[in-house]
Specification:
Elements: H1 2-20, H2 29-39, H3 46-57, H4 64-84, E1 93-94, E2 97-98, H5 100-104, H6 106-125, H7 132-146, H8 151-164, H9 168-178, H10 180-194, H11 198-225, H12 228-231, H13 237-240, H14 246-250, H15 252-269, H16 278-289
Antiparallel strand pairs: 1-2
Helix pairs in contact: 1-3, 1-4, 2-6, 3-4, 3-10, 4-6, 4-10, 7-10, 8-9, 10-11, 11-15, 11-16, 15-16
């Protein structure tokens, strides 16, 4: 069933992405092509899945949520493009293919990221079948979770850690922002667009915070024990670069235990919601056991 859940939401999102950011033959074709190269380069579409599943769980039935899912994926992809740049993590591969800057050059990759970030808010602001007050609140959530108090803040901490080193509490804070913030945006926006009450919105944020931290811990484990072919990138980079991670601090088995405990916290948060939670439950359990 999990494959059906992922495919259904990914297909909806990717179809809309193709409509919102089509190929062009204008002078700025290179930046659009670079943006599409990264945006449509596979990926699990976890953030759109979470957004659309919370939207459905809270009774939403409009098409505008798919546009917000596409906007969120644009922001996520811009962050990956910039994260791979030589001035940041300097990664040559992403999902088994050359990173955007390797395929299109650093300057074009930088602009492709800028294009996606800006276009995301244009897409979100253009939604027509969501009540204006809900759309405005969702846009505000998107901006906050993507900005300095969210994902960008996490990236800042990550860069500082490279200079100064870090204890595990600082690493946890970085994970909660760099990885967790956009997952929180997904869950909260899904609820907001459907008109959920504040109790459900808070529960969704708690769910995504726990999932986000567990997700990054599993990434730490996969960097230590994963299959390079499945991951689409080299493993062992954390140890090679002497990075402080949950695995370096606690070891693989203890890290798995912590991720499992966080997953249980996320599942408990879903108890606030009425209706069929089986799809979100299966997704949550899948994220704990994923291999890539």
């Amino acid at each position: 069933m999990i494959d059906d859940i992922l495919r259904e939401n990914a297909d909806l999102t990717e179809k809309r992405i193709n409509e919102l950011l089509p190929e062009c033959d204008k002078k700025y074709k290179s930046a659009v092509s670079a943006a599409r190269y990264s945006l449509l380069n596979g990926g699990k579409r976890i953030r759109p899945v979470i957004l659309l599943e919370f939207y459905r769980l809270c009774g939403g039935n409009g098409k505008g949520a798919v546009d917000f899912a596409a906007a969120l994926e644009m922001i996520h992809t811009y962050s990956l493009i910039h994260d791979d740049l030589p001035c940041m993590d300097n990664d040559d591969f992403r999902r088994g293919k050359p990173s955007c800057h390797k395929a299109y050059g650093e300057t074009t990759a930088l602009l492709a990221g800028d294009l996606l970030l800006t276009n995301a808010f244009s897409v979100a602001a253009g939604v027509s079948d969501i009540p204006a007050d809900r759309a405005l609140k969702a846009i505000s959530v998107l901006a906050k979770k993507a900005g300095i108090s969210g994902m960008v803040g996490g990236q800042v901490i990550d860069l500082e850690i490279e200079k100064t080193g870090a204890d595990i509490d600082t690493v946890k804070d970085m994970y909660l922002l760099k990885t967790g913030a956009l997952l929180e945006a997904a869950a909260v926006i899904g609820c907001v667009l459907a008109g959920a009450d504040e109790g459900k919105i808070a529960a969704a944020e708690k769910y995504a915070s726990s999932v986000g931290l567990a997700f990054q811990i599993i990434d730490d484990i996969l960097d230590s024990t994963g299959d390079e072919k499945l991951l689409g990138k080299p493993v062992g980079s954390d140890e090679k670069n002497s990075k402080v991670t949950y695995v370096s601090k606690y070891g693989v088995e203890k890290s798995r235990q912590i991720a499992a405990e966080l997953t249980n916290e996320a599942l408990t948060a879903l108890n606030v919601f009425d209706g069929d939670k089986s799809r979100l439950t299966e997704l949550t359990e899948y994220l704990l056991t994923r291999k890539f």
